[in-house]
Design goal:
Length: 265
């Protein structure tokens, strides 16, 4: 018996933490539906999952847009008949759009970064919640679990290396969104939690991983980890929140930071 047997989970994003999570969820018996803008990444990920004996499907969608996101969620429901979990991973840095300290930030940098992260969470969560709220409860009397992607930077800023204020604000919005969603949907039998990783191996962190100053910072402030966090470790935490093991847990923000938040290095 796998820890996700009989459960269908939508994972947004198709690389890094999203890919590690999709592969782990399927290995634990779950049905996985991947939604991402990049068709090549989606196909490659699902091919890896199915080649390993897992069950997975995919759809492409820009999750900052209502129509495509809703169509993708509908496709997941059509394929599997039920949605037990949503892991909102898709998002990204807005540096290329002008994210910076507030006195330097461009409005495009602010708006595009908030859209990539907070807006995409709202749109995908809304599409899934509308389906979860009308489906029958599972064996634990619950209708589903939503897991959001926050960041250690929303809780413990590092101004010298990460002066991207829109990114931190978007992740802070996700922290608050998680709390209010958890309270509201409690009566519907839907749990909402979030993970807040520190520096993690992914496509988004490639620039940071190539910077000696950031690598040295990680060595000092993530002392439990030899370098950046492996994406698989975030995936393991995600599996807990999306499985029945956490059936009595909601409204929580789990920081996965290798010691960042308590390090004095």
């Amino acid at each position: 018996m796998g820890r996700l047997d009989g459960r269908t989970t939508i994972v947004t994003g198709s690389t890094g933490i999203a890919a590690a999570s999709a592969e782990l969820f399927a290995a634990e018996g779950g049905r996985v539906f991947v939604i991402s803008r990049n068709e090549v990444h989606c196909r490659d990920l699902v091919d890896r999952v199915t080649a390993a004996g897992g069950e997975a499907a995919w759809a492409t969608a820009d999750l900052t847009e209502e129509g495509p996101a809703d169509d993708a969620v509908a496709a997941a429901l059509d394929r599997y008949g039920r949605i037990d979990g949503l892991f909102n991973v898709a998002g990204g840095s807005g540096r290329r759009f002008g994210d910076a300290p507030i006195h330097q930030i461009t409005l495009e940098g602010w708006e595009r970064t908030m859209a990539l992260n907070a807006r995409s969470h709202v749109i995908s969560s809304r599409a899934v919640l509308r389906r979860m709220m009308v489906q029958g409860p599972d064996a634990n009397g619950q209708r589903g679990s939503i897991l959001n992607m926050a960041s250690v930077l929303a809780l413990h800023p590092q101004p010298e290396l990460f002066p991207t204020h829109a990114y931190a604000a978007s992740k802070g919005a996700i922290v608050t969104l998680t709390t209010v969603m958890a309270a509201y949907y409690l009566g519907h039998g839907i749990r909402v939690n979030a993970v807040a990783p520190a520096l993690t191996t992914s496509r988004m962190s490639e620039r940071a991983a190539a910077d000696p100053g950031t690598v040295a910072f990680a060595e000092r402030h993530q002392p439990l980890v030899p370098g950046f966090l492996p994406a698989q470790d975030v995936a393991r935490a995600a599996m807990f929140f999306l499985s029945a093991e956490s059936r009595y847990v909601t409204g929580q923000i789990m920081t996965i930071d290798g010691g960042w938040s308590v390090s004095q290095g």
